[in-house]
Amino acid sequence: MLENIRLSFQGIWSHKMRSFLTMLGIIIGIASIIAIVSTIKGTSEQIKEDLIGSGNNTVNISLYYGDNTYDTDYGMGSSNPPILTTDQKEEVLELENVENATFFYSRSYSSNIYYQNTTFQGGKVYGIDTNFLETCGYTVRSGRGFVQKDYDELHKVALVDSSAAENLFSGEDPVGKIVEIGSEPFTIIGVVQQDEDYLPNIDDISQFYEYYQTVMGSVMIPSRCWPMVFKFDEPENAIIRADSTDSMSTAGNAAAKVLNQYISSGSNSDSTTQYEYRADDVMERVKNLQKLSESTNQQLLWIASISLLVGGIGVMNIMLVSVTERTSEIGLKKAIGARKKTILIQFLTEASVLTSIGGVIGVVSGIALSKVVSRLSGSPTAISVPAIIGSVLFSMLIGVIFGLLPSVKAANLNPIDALRSE
Q: At what angle do helices 248-259 and 86-93 cross, to 10 degrees?
């Protein structure tokens, strides 16, 4: 086999221009496929990043009443909504693929928060636990965050994000200022800011409202202080952070199942059957958009594959020419005892080496082409190692398939006729 490979390289090198022109179809086809696959993969990753964020892996789990999200501001249903238990929270935190989880109260479009003569309109107020800031990607920009003592001793303290700080305090340092939340005084102890990766992506009207609330800002108080302001128990929602993007759907659905245990098995299950916790399956939207993008690009792959077919025909043609040129050589080898199998393998090896070299050059050209296209058009690309390996193996397979006819022809030559052809 090594001798056949050496002879193949020798034959290719002795006809450099002819060999290069033969490989050109393979090079163009493989380069096109690598560039298209890289664009498909890059686009898929971009879609995932745009919808989910770059590595935040958080899943919102909201309480629904029927087909609609339960809205505490307006109340829904005639029965009391389910209240989460400490055991459920512990169970969610112990789930596989869940790195962190937070349980929180929230009110939208809060108009019951005041600082002097300024009303906090259009934002949100949260009652948060000790995991909220870490899970949702908040960092303390100034002042301090909540500590366990604030929860244990029911301290009336609050945090504001940077947007709320600007809207409520008009450029003043909010730390130490007192705001009224539902007629209760709360002291601002810190300003927090959320990482850009955690900001909402707008692809429907509900997310537009969420984005609007983000622009207006948020005020946060300890969850233990929530009944002081709103006077009665309210249902909580949850956010979990999965250990990877691919496990978001699994982790979110598992957490929702735990939260629904009380509804399905609790003592008042008959009166709460219309309530259900549901995880926001962002990954499903990602997969649908990725399928749409990939289905379009699959057509381009088929078009690029035509170049490989043309290249394969070129390989067959040049190998037939090679057999004709080396007829006397084949006759001589058969006259001194070379078998059909030996001749067949020699020419198949030469065809495979020829297309494999074209495949390697095509891979390098495809990577370079994808980088150029990405730079010129601004579209993302991601190099696929399996596609590179597959392309080289496929180019070798083309050599075997299209080199088979010339190789069989060479192997079946009559040695007497072959020697006489000189």
A: 160
R_g (Cα) of the chain, nearest Å: 34
Q: Judge contact between 354 and 12, C-beta under 8 A.
A: yes
Q: Which residues contact 142 (CB under 8 A, 6 or more apart)?
A: 173, 175, 190, 191
Please work out, in degrees rounded to the nearest 5, the angle formed at the alpha carbon of residue 66 by the alpha carbons of 269 and 131. Answer: 75
Q: Which of 182, 199, 170 is nearest to 107 (CA)?
A: 182
Owner of token pair 């069989």: 408
CB atoms within 10 A of CB 154: 12
Helix H or strand E segment including 396: helix 385-411
Give the three-state DSSP class for 113: strand
Contact 334, 342 (CB under 8 A): no
Q: What is the pLDDT of residue 187?
A: 95
Angle (CA) 383 388 389, round 5°: 140
- CA–CA distance, 89 with 82 (Å, rounded to integer): 14
CB-count burial class (<10 Å; 0-12, 13-18, 19+) for 274: middle
Residue 263, CB half-sphere, CA atoms under 13 Å: how many? 22
Residue 241 burial by Cβ neighbours in a 10 Å radius (0-12, 13-18, 19+): buried
Report strand pairing: 184-194 vs 157-161. parallel
**What is the rounded CA–CA span in Å between residue 90 and residue 112?**
33
Looking at every residue in the chain, the average pLDDT score rounds to 77
What pLDDT was estimated at residue 14? 75
What is the number of other CB atoms lying within 10 angstroms of the CB of residue 278?
Answer: 16
Yes or no: say if 80 and 322 are a contact pair by the CB < 8 Å rule. Answer: no
The closest alpha carbon to 326, from 21, 18, 11, belongs to 11
Contact predicate 38/300, CB 8 Å? no
Question: What per-residue confidence (pLDDT) applies to 358?
Answer: 84
User: Is residue 107 within 8 Å of residue 73, measured between CB atoms?
Assistant: yes
Confidence of residue 372 (pLDDT cuts 50, 70, 90): confident
If you average pLDDT over residues 404-419, what whole number do you get?
Answer: 68
Q: Where is pLDDT greater, at 304 or 93?
A: 93
Q: Which residues pair with 220 in a beta bridge?
A: 126, 159
Asked whether the whole model's pTM tops 0.70, one would answer no
- Closest by Cα among 196, 162, 190, 165 to 176: 190
